[in-house]
Amino acid sequence: MDSISRLLRMARVGAELDRRCLLAGATRMDVAGVAETQAPFHVLLEGECAFAVGGTSLHLRAGDVVIVPSGAPHRVTTPGRGRERGVESSTGGVLIQTRTAGDVDPPVIDLFCGHYEFGTGAGRLLFRSLPDPVHVSFGRTEEGDEVLRMISALMRREAGRDGEGTAAILASLATVLLAMVLRTSRGDATKAALWTAAADRRIAGAVEAMLRSPGEAWTIDRLSRAANTSRATFQRHFTRHTGTTVAAFLARARLMAAAELLGSSDATVGAVALRVGYQSESAFSRAFRAEVGTTPARFRREQAGRSRGTGFPR
């Protein structure tokens, strides 16, 4: 299994489309913050708009996807004629089409809005490791534009039908977009790196190896030899392409694997610690609690409780 597919499986990612926004005139949409196991996303199919979260402002064009891993409140504004009007942002899980300017002017933008849901263990670690926000442009290349055209055509058709299976199909297409985002290299040194899409094949190979076998005795010397580079060169390139150090990345990979094992196996906490590369159960427990916010034993009980309550694994 490739690393992106492995990450999505471990993170137990699901998606839900909340609304389709057809906005005309000058509009402002304020989106409230969400739960810690959710990440809002927006897919701009047509037009241009401004997006702001925290201290970051982005100019979105057709083909852009933006994800807010922190779930923080954010704002979307569109250009147009007349005085700016606010747009109600509550959805209740229902796909909504919204126009402003008296439903007279043609839409300025066609925007799909939704959110990803993920597990409290590996999923939370994965999304917390991503830049906030994540901004990827699929419409700037011929290949990306073609892919987005196909997906957007399906999304529009299903949103227009609003029939049996529409919600499931739209959610699946949103998950496809997430996989595409995670494997897309930005190619812009001024922006935070997407470590899931390291452009350097040697660094990507090291990332894949650590995700595939987190319990291995990985060292910088071993990884640099496999990459056929010096130790210093490997460390420098790794940080540049992933935005983190080898040690920090390995710790994250091990804890994501541990969360997966705690939620899906009967192995003891000590056995899980050994399988993901910790020689001491106490050291593992401290690291796990620092990142996940609870002990491995309590995390396992919580996962079991969620499974019993929903009938589905978390």
Description:
By secondary structure, the protein is an alpha+beta fold. The protein folds into two domains: 3-182, Jelly Rolls; 200-309, Arc Repressor Mutant, subunit A, CATH 1.10.10. 44% of the residues lie in helices and 20% in strands. It has eleven helices and eleven strands. Strands 9-1-10-3-6-11 form a six-stranded mixed beta sheet, with helices on one face. A five-stranded mixed beta sheet has the order 5-4-7-2-8, with no helix packed on it. Helix 2 (122-128) runs antiparallel to helix 8 (246-264), helix 3 packs antiparallel against helix 4 and helix 6 (220-226) packs across helix 7 (231-242). The longest helix is centred in the middle third of the chain and has 20 residues, at 142-161. The chain is globular.
List keywords for this structure.
Jelly Rolls; Arc Repressor Mutant, subunit A; 2 domains; 11 helices
What's this model, at a glance?
The chain has helices spanning 3-11, 122-128, 142-161, 166-182, 201-212, 220-226, 231-242, 246-264, 269-275, 281-292, 296-310, and strands spanning 14-23, 27-31, 38-46, 48-53, 56-61, 64-67, 74-78, 85-87, 97-98, 109-117, 134-137.
Secondary structure: elements and pairs:
Elements: H1 3-11, E1 14-23, E2 27-31, E3 38-46, E4 48-53, E5 56-61, E6 64-67, E7 74-78, E8 85-87, E9 97-98, E10 109-117, H2 122-128, E11 134-137, H3 142-161, H4 166-182, H5 201-212, H6 220-226, H7 231-242, H8 246-264, H9 269-275, H10 281-292, H11 296-310
Parallel strand pairs: 1-9, 2-8
Antiparallel strand pairs: 1-10, 2-7, 3-6, 3-10, 4-5, 4-7, 6-11
Helix pairs in contact: 1-2, 2-8, 3-4, 6-7
